[in-house]
Specification:
Elements lengths: L2 H10 L2 E4 L5 H10 L9 E2 L1 E2 L6 E2 L5 E5 L5 H21 L5 E9 L3 E6 L9 E8 L12 E4 L6 E5 L6 E5 L5 E6 L3 E9 L4
Antiparallel strand pairs: 1-11, 2-5, 3-4, 5-6, 6-13, 7-12, 8-11, 8-13, 9-10, 9-12
Bound molecules: N-oxalylglycine and manganese (II) ion.
Length: 196
Amino acid sequence: MDIAKIAYQLEHSGYIVLSESLVADLLADLFTRCHDDDSTRFHAAQVGRGAGKQLSAIRGDVIDWLDNSHSTDQAYLACMEELRLGLNESLFLGLFDYECHYAIYGKGNGYAKHSDVLQGQKNRILTTVLYLNEDWHARDGGELVVFDSTGKTIVTTVNPTFGTMIIFLSEFFPHEVLLSHATRRSIAGWFRVRGS
Ligand code: OGA
Ligand code: MN
C-alpha cells in the first residue's frame, strides 16, 4: 500500500478511496474466506457494545470477525499492521490496534445512515472497508454513501467493486450502505486508540 499517499489524503480530505488496494492473490483468498457456507462462522450483526448491544433493524449484514490463526486473515492483518505503523509515524495518530470483520449483505439489505464511533466511546479513529465483489454492476446498488459531518452533504459515493478500499476518519463521516440487489461482500475494520 502507498502509505505516504494515504497519509497525505487523510490529512487533507479525511478520506481516501483506493481502487487497487491489495495484491490480487490476497484479494482472491479474502474473497474465498468471505463466504457463509459453514454455518458456524457468520452471524447477524449487532449494533452497540456490551449491555447496549442489540440486534438491529438498521443493518442487514451477517459478519465474522477475522481469525488471526487463519493464514489468509493473518496476511490481511499484516497489511493493516503495516498501515497502522506507517500512519502512526506520519500522522501521529497513536493507533493502538485494528479490529475487522467480514460482512455479507444478502439481496435487499443495506445499512442505514450511521456513525462508526460508538456512543460514549471515541476509540474508533479510522474506518476501513475493503470490497470483494467481482462483476459488480450499477444495477446491483449497494453503494456506500459518505456524508460530511453535518450528515447532509454527500462527500463521495463508492461502488463496492473488487479490490476497492475506502479509509476515512470515523468520527467525521456519517455513512450509509444503499440497498444491495446482489450478494455484497466486504471487510469492515477500525483502527482504534487505547482507552474507553
Ligand atoms: C459498517 C459500514 C460500510 C460498507 O460496517 O459500519 O458502514 O460499505 N460498512 O460496507
Ligand atoms: Mn459504518
